[in-house]
């Protein structure tokens, strides 16, 4: 139902399905299944994160890394402590039901609920097609805040079992943040390099190439989780590191397999997560406390808005492209909570946290509010505020050349100024990668291939596949023909090959044929997205065929109108003769008139109006025979022109109608005077005839 899915996000509909399924199971007397934390963290979350990390747009991510880190680290810490402190104050003032909840429990609750969820952000932001900057800021924050959430969660969980928390414990807790985040990245990089190195030797067993990508990525996640490091950071690092080297080594079929299997796997995981979230809501034990739940929801929104406003004010002092108030609003509004918070809450131990059911109820309320209310209203708000949308364009050779040129230019300017900015370090990293890393991790000659030629090959392959998929074998993409690899890597032609010389007329004729017949020479297909369906490639061809048929019918109708002679008014013989002399085209004979011109039709081309000519305009009375009454009543008589005998020429052989008067009349009727040449695309018969 497209009208529903355009208003309500997919994640909301899936939660509703989960609620219905859970209610149905409970209604028949069975116990609904609950989303176990082990199943969520070990099986459902990794595919979504790997899909996001492997296809991460690296350039915008690295260019905005500082902003993303400030939002992810400082923003999450602010949310956790601000929310935890205020909720502790609410518990102290909230009466007998909340007095027993201490500061550590509230801080732990704040750390669980404060983190933006990558699954919820992906589900909503991919549907609204927001511009790349805002998408990468919110999504990057949701990925990188995992390290902060993991540290704070384990820290407060450990502190809850301590009798006394010392200053040393707090310092060690602060240092553990760097260990967890950097340790996760290191584990990911190691497995990424191993995966790239393994793919170098798989040329003889192409079938198992995709398996190595999934295997090493999952190993990175499990290894990080084993040591309480950030598994999400490890997965992202592994995906980002291995992708350029693995894609250079593996076959194109393996690349397609990886791409579509990851998309399918992440889509299935996302669906299961949201459905289970709905089922678990019905199945779980709940303890509803109005004060606690409403305060949590209110302070979550306040903390997010204040955090974004203060941090953006600070970030804009250092950014060249400033974040506008509209951008700040979307970043604050896009802070969605999801299943990660629910699973972390579910992991809490009843022994240390007796109020776990109340925490879970508050967490589910916040998740439902952010996913349903914010998720459903963000699309109309984006349209209302006229926030810039994502441009669906593909990179071209021209853009690639200019991007590289600007990178080199800015690196040169930084070197001259003596300022070592990110362009300088990026250039150093690229040189190191080219000189040492590529030689070790990429097999064969492709390790020495220039970036531009590699990009051209990739683009050419992509267009060829799209061409075959769309069924347009005759429609050759213009980019392949215009941007020739010969220009980049020139080759000498063999001497014996001689190109045939074409005359100007022939060349112009060929150009005209190509211009009129090659319609839609380049079909652009959008990049794959599970939220949007690709349009039928044959639909355009059918539309073109229908248009041509319609034009042909209109043309035929016009020609029939041209050949139809209108009914004649009764007129005197004197007037008829006067009109023949002055304006033969306006000649309209009387029914009983003796001046009956005879129109003959050339049988060679009955559809063509040029084939209608006046062979004899002599009055029937002048030929010496009296007019027959049948011919008198017929008006204009149309007769078939006699085919000429072989060897005679229609133009130069004189006929019985070649008298001077008939020739003069023929010229008047057949030559309407000088006309401009008809332009291309105009109908055969001009309008108005």
From TrEMBL:
Residues 585-689 are annotated as: Disordered. One of its GO terms (cellular component) is basolateral plasma membrane. Residues 504-531 form a coiled coil. InterPro entries: Cation/H_exchanger_CPA1, Cation/H_exchanger_TM, NaH_exchanger, NHE-1-like, NHE_CaM-bd. The keyword Heme does not apply. One of its GO terms (biological process) is sodium ion import across plasma membrane. It is found in: Basolateral cell membrane. It holds the Pfam family Na_H_Exchanger. Residues 654-664 have a biased composition (Polar residues). Residues 8-382 form the Cation/H+ exchanger transmembrane domain. The chain crosses the membrane at residues 6-25, 37-56, 68-91, 103-124, 136-156, 168-198, 218-241, 262-284, 290-316, 328-347, 359-382. It is a multi-pass membrane protein. Residues 479-566 form the Sodium/hydrogen exchanger regulatory region domain. One of its GO terms (molecular function) is sodium:proton antiporter activity. Its main location: membrane. Keywords: Antiport, Calmodulin-binding, Cell membrane, Coiled coil, Glycoprotein, Ion transport, Lipoprotein, Membrane, Palmitate, Phosphoprotein, Sodium, Sodium transport, Transmembrane, Transmembrane helix, Transport, Ubl conjugation. It catalyses: Li(+)(out) + H(+)(in) = Li(+)(in) + H(+)(out); Li(+)(in) + Na(+)(out) = Li(+)(out) + Na(+)(in); Na(+)(in) + H(+)(out) = Na(+)(out) + H(+)(in). Belongs to the monovalent cation:proton antiporter 1 (CPA1) transporter (TC 2.A.36) family. This is Sodium/hydrogen exchanger. It comes from Cinclus mexicanus (American dipper). The gene is Slc9a1.
